[in-house]
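Form 12-C: Joint structure prediction
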Amino acid sequence: MKLKNFGERIPQGLFFIIALSALTVLALITIFIFVQGVPLIAKVGFFHFIFGMKWAPSQGYYGIFPMIVGTISVTLGAIILGVPVALCCAIFLAEFAPRQLSDVVRPAIQLLAGIPSVVYGFWGLIFIVPLIREYLGGPGLSILAGSIILAIMILPTVISISEVSLLALSPLLKEGAFALGATHWQTIRSVLVPAAKSGIVASIILGIGRAVGETMAVIMVLGNAVALPNSILSPVRTLTTNIGIEMGYASGEHQQALFATGIVLLVIIMILNSVAQYSIRRK
Amino acid sequence: MSEQIKISIKNLNCFYQKKEVIKALNLDVRENEILSVFGPANSGTTTLLRALNRMTDLTPGARMEGEIFLDGKNIRAPGVSITELRRKVSMVFEVPTPLPMSIFDNVAYGPRLSGVKNRVLLEELVEDSLQMAVLWDEVKDRLHTSGMRLSGGQQQRLCLARILALHPGVILLDRPCSGLDPVSTSKIEESLRHLKEKFTIVIVPHNVQQAGRVSDRAAFLLMGDLIEVGPTAEVFANPRDKRTSDYITGRFG
Amino acid sequence: MHIRVNPKTTQTIAKVVIWAAALLVLLLLFTIMIYFLSKGIPHITWQFLTQIPSDMGKSGGISSAIVGTLAVTLVAIVVATPLGVGTAFYLTEYTRESGVTKVIRFSAESLAGIPSIVYGLFGFIFFVTYLKLGWSILSGGLTLAVMILPTIIRTSEEAIRTVPPMYREVSFSLGGTKWQTMTKVLIPSALPGIATGIILGIGRSVAETAAIILTAGSALQMPTSLFSPARTLAVHFYILASEGISLDNAFATAAILIILILLINIGANLLVNRFVAKRR
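Section 2 - Result
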């Protein structure tokens, strides 16, 4: 009889160890990346690393500010272009689409999310870049090209989470507004969207995270110039593409600097995640 | 009904969070009897039932003191196998809950858990249990269809068959007929009357009338206190305590 | 000056904009898919699928990349599934919300947001260098396992939570242990959700490029063991396209990738529908 209870303890202990795997992995990632990158930051100096304008590893210059500007501008562009479209789609799925149509559109968006980022990048190189060069000038390889591609890539994230937030609202909210004589659109604009605000904001923040972290989609269309951009038609590098391009041949200090860039990315993502969590909890 | 004591409850106190749900309860359950434990809501009737097979262990925030003896052995002693206890003291819940499997697999679930693998043996067990639960005739031609397609009354009898397959000593029923139509209710009550020859039964009835119809002895619980217990006919016709008669006649509920 | 706009007009304009947005998204999807499929499928021949690349990929086929993709995906799934489902089970079964579960949940959610290039850096420094596994299928697969772990945890946890709590009570009351309850009742009931998570993980593994280049290398030869370096379809496509080696082969590879993703998605939806129907 005693053995039966003991047989309960073994699985419980085993599952506890399994459950710790997520924590263990997170710790390993943090430790190993920091161990590689921190010495470089210490050597170069924190402010010189983050705000330094010159990135020239062969001469020992490790300033990543141009890349930070690159990341911010491309991400900003992606949000400006992508979020309005995504919100409209979410509203479409939640409020306007008849059942048969939404049963087609939703899997289509899932499919959009599954396509490899390199495919998007290449498509951008062939379609978008020449269009920009033709009609707007500049080399075509630019912030604008990157923003357009990233906007497409964050659509699934923002659409699905925003749609879920809208669908989760109590139907009484809508009924109350209709009872006061509001039109469907007025209800959506003034009642439903504000009510779903925290979920929508969380989806946008997750979209930002996705855009900041993307490498392969933009590496082919950004032009990869290590310089501060002066317009949206200028080529840039982002923190991620910098690592992607140079990791293939970097060694020693240079490699450490790329790990240090990785640290910056980790910190940015952590901050974004916390803000998203906070926004959800405030509801 | 024998005079042998099957379950002996001594000084049972049950706490949920800080609230005392059962207070210093002493009660005996006799072998091969049907004992009903009845009372208004929140009197501890369900808690008492769940204490008998230590389902209370699963409720977060629940705490118990006192002793419960099954066939002379304290079920709350350390080192007692809870899984074996629950096979000897089995429970039918208020909401009929067939598992998402075939009728056959539902009834065979318990025996399989305790290691029975022989196909012939399982088939015998399933047929016997379904017969005892008065369900065999209705389902014998569709044993491998899903248990969830049965009607409410049939599902509850399936749940009964499920625990009968374990050959428990004690059967606990928590308001088993509360959602069922009168025909199903009477079928279940009928099967209980046959079952008490082989098993000991403790039932929390969903209304006082059921206690009157089905049980040999009745125990009245009010706000965690055992007010009185005795042969059903006596408790209902000549209750010793005024509160008992008030509840039975419906002066409060 | 106070302009009164008829609310009905505003609504019509809004509706047009919204439908246009939805159409735009659908259009984008179809344009991209059809572009690659139309340019790529003509170049997919039986030889293409069964020969290994030669001449840096300019000629020959992509068989080694196909094998590479299958291999790293398999490693990732085999490692991540037990860990992910086990973690999900722990979170839903053994504890009430405690400090430990909060930490585990926080870890899983943080892992979900880490950029793939950072995973590549980690895989390189940990699996390739520190554990001395070298550029190999194993390094790539283990890195992928870490990347898909949060997804499997999240979908499995959701799936287990939707199983009616009464099933657990019933199983316990019949003398089942927690292990028996999990394996005989909960996991079978939660299987569609768990399978969806696994399929999402497969899709992610097939599409991943940045992390693979840094961990599995980009060798063209057919891998012979878990320790061989290998190329996946996505990596092969990237190299062909970005270095301009062969546009035809690049399109063909992209077409195969898109077809794979399509099949995976359709498979996932079919699986879910079949299980839901079976349970009824």
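Section 3 - Comments
The mean pLDDT of chain C is 86. The longest strand of chain C covers residues 53-54.
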